[in-house]
Structure formats: structure tokens, C-alpha cells
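Me: I'm a chemist; would you kindly supply a protein sequence with its C-alpha cells?

Assistant:
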Amino acid sequence: MRELLDIFGQTLRTLWAHKLRSFLTMFGIAWGVGSLLLLVGVGEGFRSGNRKQFDELGENVMFIWSGRAPAIDGSFNSLRPYQLTYRDYLDVKAECPSVRAVMPIINRQDLRAVSEYFSASGQILGVTPEFNTVRYVPLAEGRWLNELDDQQKRHVIVIGDELRKTLFPGRPYLGATVLLNGTRFEVIGSIIRIGHGDNSNNNLKSFIPFNTMHDMFPPKGTDVTDAISNLNYQPRSRALHEQAKLEVHKIIARNHGFDPLAPDAFEEWDTIKTADSVGAIFDAMNEFLGSVGLVTLALGAIGVINIMLVAVADRTREIGLRKALGATNRSIMLQFFIEGAFLTILSGAVGIAASAGLMAALATLPQPQGFDTPKLVPSTALLALVALSIAGVVAGLYPARQAARLEPVEALRKE
């Protein structure tokens, strides 16, 4: 133990005696490790922010809108529009075993909301009570729509956070009245603010019972009596999303008289597929950055080996004198090994600490939409530590063996 402490003290004195050389060597490794962790951390921030955006839509949600189908079967030169209907909703609900939940939506953006204080415009959605089991609509106060609201076509409304602030600035709103195009609706609840930054589209949405919406504010621009704006549905499991999509396609194609395999006949968004594609991009990016980081660490280790070999050459007479005074090959080898390993691992620790500090500082700044706070990825930090340890062993071992193999007489003769 005493010998190790002496060797460690000698290592520190040697590094301090060659401050510039030691600093430049350490800087290269610290820069490589810090850059690797920072880049992966920023990428993880984008991944996390993207995941949160999908989570704010709901879990495994799939959307389908009215579209355009071939006017003649097999011909794609002319397309005819078709309108989704309430019958489509009922058929999907009854005939698609891979679909766990499906909801009809009527969406209007031209309705004017007026309170006794102010007026505002935003999206008004007519939804069924199960909407909040699939989509993300966390309540701030009050209650959500229920079956009686829908069956009895009650005039009740759940308002978004931005609409609440505009219509009732700093005032009580539960039980208050909102006029939608002149029709009175009672406010029964409000939604927690969703997202961050200046994007307030989700917070301008308000919800009324589907049947109330259907009777009073049906979709515009169509003469179909049971028209809806879109369907939201959720597969029974993430793995079944393609099967669920195919079943929904078959129902809609059958009801509207076209081939379910017709390309571009469906206007839809599969958030599961999108999330998987984005995740694959981030995985590939992390692998690329990881490989670049490992190459950087390898180059840093080569730099340490080079510096240590220079140190062996500079201290040849010292090595010869120590061996002449009785120092063993083991003690000589141990000293240079500890020196190289210490230089490498200390540099890596500085790089990790610097990147963690910078990411913590970035976390205090306002984050743009779709971007989350950069974070230190434990798996990447662990990989960096393992790579540093290996690099430290290699960087210390080879020069140490070269030093230990010097003959005392030849070393003392060295000018």
C-alpha cells in the first residue's frame, strides 16, 4: 500500500512538472468524451421531446379522415371524394377485432365562443365519452363528458386551457355560460395546459357531446346527413396496428364502394409507425455518435501512448538510476502504468463532468417545441467509462513495459 501511495505521488509530481504536455493530452480525451456525451444527450432530448408530443396525442392513436377514391375500379386517372359517416364508426366498432376502441369526431373551427367577459375562436370537437380513454385530455378542474351528456344531447362543454384564460381571465368558470354561435353551453370542466412554448393549438380545443355537435354543428361542406370529420382508433396492442389498419380500410372501402388496396385512397396518420420510424432514426444516430466517440477515444489513447513513450525517452537516465539503486521491473512498470491510466481516466472524468454541467445549464433555458432537456444517458456514460478504462490500460501498459525493459547500464549511458 505504501509503495502504491509513493508511486501515485510520483505520478502527480511528474504530471505537474510537465503541465502543458499533460493538459494538452488530457484536453483531447476530455473533449472527445464530453462531445460524445453532449451530442448523445441532445439527441436524447429530441427523442424525449418527440415522445412527449406523441404522448400528448394519446397512447397508440391512429387517425383516418375522409378521402378520395378511384371513380372507376382500377382506374387512377379520376378520383371521387367520399365522406366518412357515423355508419363507418358503428361498423368498425362491431366488425374489427383488432381495434380496441374507436371514436367518431366532428371538428369545427368556425364557431365563435363568447363569455360575459370576452370572445374567442378555437376548435370545437364533438366527441363521445370514451374519447379521454384514448386521447390525452387531463382535467384541471370539473368533470369530463359522460354517457348521459351524450344520450340527452346536453349543452355542456369542457374548455381548453388557452380558451379558459381568454374567456374567463382570473375569474371562476365552472358552471358559467359560454355561447357557441349564440347557443348557451354550461362549462363543466377544463383541461390542463398541454405542451410548452408558444404552441397553443391543443389548448384552444374544447369538447362538447358528439350527439349535441351532430345536431347543432354538423360538418360543413357536405350534404351527407350522418357525416363525421374523422375517426380516431386504437389497436388492441401496438403489434396489431397494421392488422387494425387493414381491417378499418376494408370496412371503409366496402361502405364507400372502392378497393381497400387502392393506393392513396385513405387520408390517415398512424402515430405508431411514425413514432417507430423516428425512434429508428435516433437509434441510428446514437450508434453513429457512439462509434465516432469510440474512435475519438482510441485516438486519444494513441496520443497518451505517444506522450508516455516520450516520457520514457526523457526519463531514461532516471529509470536507469532507479534500477541501479534496486528498483524492480515491477515497480518501474507499475509507475508508468499508473501514470498513463491516471492521465486517461482523469481526462474522461473531466469530460463527463463538463458535459453533465453543460446539459444541466441548458436545462434552465426555455426549450423549443418538440425538444426536451438534454440529459446524460447512463448507458453512453457507462460505455465511455469502459472504453476509457480499456484505453487507460493500453495507454499505460505498453510504455510501462518499454520502460521496465531498459537495462540499467544502457539507461545510465544515455545522454
Residues 271-314 form the longest helix (44 residues).
